[in-house]
Amino acid sequence: MELKRVAENIWEIPRHGEMKVPARIYASRKLVDAVGGDKTLEQARNVACLPGIQRMSYVMPDAHQGYGFPIGGVAAFDLDEGIISPGGVGYDINCGVRLLRTDFSEADVTLKRRELLAEIFKDVPAGVGKGGVTKLTQSVLKDVLVRGAEWAVANGYGTSDDLATTEERGRMKDASWDDVSARAMERGIPQLGTLGSGNHFLEFQKVDRIFDARAAAAFGLGAEGQVLVMIHCGSRGLGHQVASDYIQSMENAFGVRNLPDRELVHAPVKSSLGRSYYRSMCAAVNYAFANRQMIAHWVRDVFKRVLGTSEGMRQVYDVCHNVAKVEMHAVGGVEKELCVHRKGATRSFGPGRAELPEAYRAVGQPVIIPGSMGTASYVLVGTAEAEDLSFSSTAHGAGRAMSRQEALRRFRGERIRDELAARGIELLSTSWKGVAEEAAAAYKDVDEVVRVSDEVGLGRIVARVVPIGVMKG
Amino acid sequence: MDRYTILDHPADGKFQAFGATLEEAFANAALALASLMWDWEKVEPAGSFDVEVRGHDLEQLLYLFLEDILFLAETKRFLLSSVEDVRILSADAGYLCQAALLGDREPGRYEVHGDVKAITYHEMKVEQRSDHWLVQVVVDM
Questions:
Q1: From CA A431, how far away is CA A434, in angstroms rounded?
Q2: CATH of the domain at B45
């Protein structure tokens, strides 16, 4: 397949064969070599063949091979001619990241960091088969699906300020529980308020370096050494089941014969099945918002208990990185509503977008990019240029570079724990084998990913943060 | 012949499972899936669930059969230790699969080291070879 270098960090697969638009990859030479070794490019090309796709099939700097759509893929579809695809959102609907700032400095937590982590580990359920602490009924769950983080705030988890700093204010309005299967709800009931395991984690971190003082100040980030809390999780089994249910329904309705990859199954946006998936996906998005809202509340409780206060623990922002949304974007100079799929990509709205809270409207949206276990994470700010470059999207993380099998062969969880401890980073996990699978060396270099994002203009670096304590599910 | 092989995959989990019959290959695929999350050989067969799924083709049948293992782990806290009495029949322009899943409902007794989020159709294979069946599955982790 031809891969043309368009400019520094920008590559394109020219339109050919069934492609309706070109595919564009944002990557350094080093990162493009990494995706050349897997199926990312082939998958980006397959997405470019889908009906109603607009402008280009985009690939973010942290992309890797997915199923159907690549992870790190962004594709927008016309509402009349286009499609919506569960595979374009991913199984973990509204997997996302929430960042809390604090008034604590590293010195305030150094002696208490072990206790903080142990208490968080106790209060935030994680791991397979660990139920949530709230005994949920199906009628309450339906409320969660419709109201999202609003439900959590109304029930004493956090404050309405948190809603203002959550994408969609923590609630996608088109959600309907009626489109969510009983099986999905059954999976959702025991897991509300749980972190989950795998690549999900909760970290407390410190600001390592500020790159953009103006944006940092707007986001509540100040001096180096300031303590932050990052929560990375999603919609748990409920979201996975919603994706699976609609993949089966779309297969049954439209067949799979003409698809280059069965995971590309889709329905017209405006078809009854397309609308039903969208409403159901919105419900799963809301479940994930509520989930992170509850976990953030418990984290504040722990800080209050251990350090005496949780004053100043405001939320910087909460971003989704697996989602489809209807947004206004310019195509050929004309503003129109599109169904934007971001699978392993973060929205990065620049200054002025009406969707942003007032406090951020002058600077742009905070973009939170978690690194891998024990490595740096970043706070970026959305840009005006990203609108033209990627329908206002950028990377979502480091992106895996090594298989779990290879990681298990090379690393031992207990050893990783000791190495992190030697660097002043505490680690707690439900499984050391799980820690080995998530070893930082199994991921791409997050510094390289955000550098490309910054240089191309998808999102500009505001701050680099590093972990102090890591809870891995 | 091994029951299954776990294959390298850049981001997710991938395995092939084998059997002299399709039923045996399905049972071994269930164990391969379990091995990505817990050590099924260490789990006591303290209880069981009967499952039944229908698919318009063998791939969908396998997908839904494996999904039941995730579903039971999350909703019944049930960790699989073995699979018995697998039957696969043609039914309603498609297929039906019945099986008894044995395992334990006390996940706290075992180490759960991985989280399989979902089964996928990506690179899925259900193939009859000269003297055995082969199935291949990629799961989202």
A1: 5
A2: 3.55.10.10
